[in-house]
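Exam prep: given the inputs below (a chain plus adenosine-5'-triphosphate), describe the expected output before reading on.
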Amino acid sequence: MNEIPIKLTDIGLKYDDFTALDGVSFEVESGQTMALLGHNGAGKSSLIKIILGLITPSSGSVNIMGSQGKLSHHKHKINLGYLPEDVSFYDKLTGREVLNYFAALKRVRPTRVADLIDEFGLGYAQDRQLKTYSKGMKQRLGVAQAILSEPGILLLDEPTVGLDPQASKFLYGKINQLKQAGCAVVVSTHELSLVESHMDTALIMSKGRRLALGTSSELSAGSSIKTGIEFAELASWVERDHYLRRFFIDGRLQVESAQKQQMIKYLVSQCQIFDFTLHKPKLEDIYHDLMMHPLVDQSAQQ
Ligand SMILES: Nc1ncnc2c1ncn2[C@@H]1O[C@H](COP(=O)(O)OP(=O)(O)OP(=O)(O)O)[C@@H](O)[C@H]1O
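Solution:
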């Protein structure tokens, strides 16, 4: 079966008179990781809940692993891993009991529980009740629960909140392993630097609408943030070259995405400069730029 695991088309969602989602479409393929970005209240959690079948959109179609509609989602529950935004378990259970409970529900071999407890550094606390766990420990347990069944679809709602940097890095390593195994991963987050280094694409939401979708390079091409270029003796080159001078800002050449190839060609062919450093725009800058100057997202209209 080669169905696209997650395909949402023209999704609308209303809470009474309030429009929480408006015409949102996207797909996530097997082995693809997509970040859901956007301001508080942009609609990220609502999209995740729609994928899960926890809420039904007011309009549009949801296609999960080739099946449409809410009922069919039940067939796939075991193949879905989910970490809710506010993870909470019954706090009289121990960490091990929680994972054993989900392992039984998801028909996962018990040895996997022991492995994950160990990998998430919870071995020392596995027989303690959850009421003694710190926020980060509960979050680690929540993430372990989400990936327990090595699912085909993994949905994580702000998974790194409360995690220390080491645990966040470990989590993204795990996400990468699942991606290699063909899992379609959606992560809602505000941590843009982690998205940049670990996720394939990002869907940027604003006020319930899709603002942009693409890889960092694609998002960069749609923003007005420039690429910086530096090389040895740049200042003296700029002094004698009119063309280069036009792009010289704050000690480096700065070009828009569409001009980058042309500039590199010029440096190589006209100046014989082969050794230069490109400073690509950071996702954080692209994000703020897109939020301030929204694109007309052509592909969203298709
Ligand atoms: N049950 C509900 N009833 C009414 N409005 C709701 C309900 N759930 C969500 N909303 C509204 O829908 C909008 C989208 O909420 P959602 O939780 O999807 O945003 P989000 O992007 O996940 O935000 P955050 O980054 O703060 O978690 C918000 O304006 C929110 O107030």
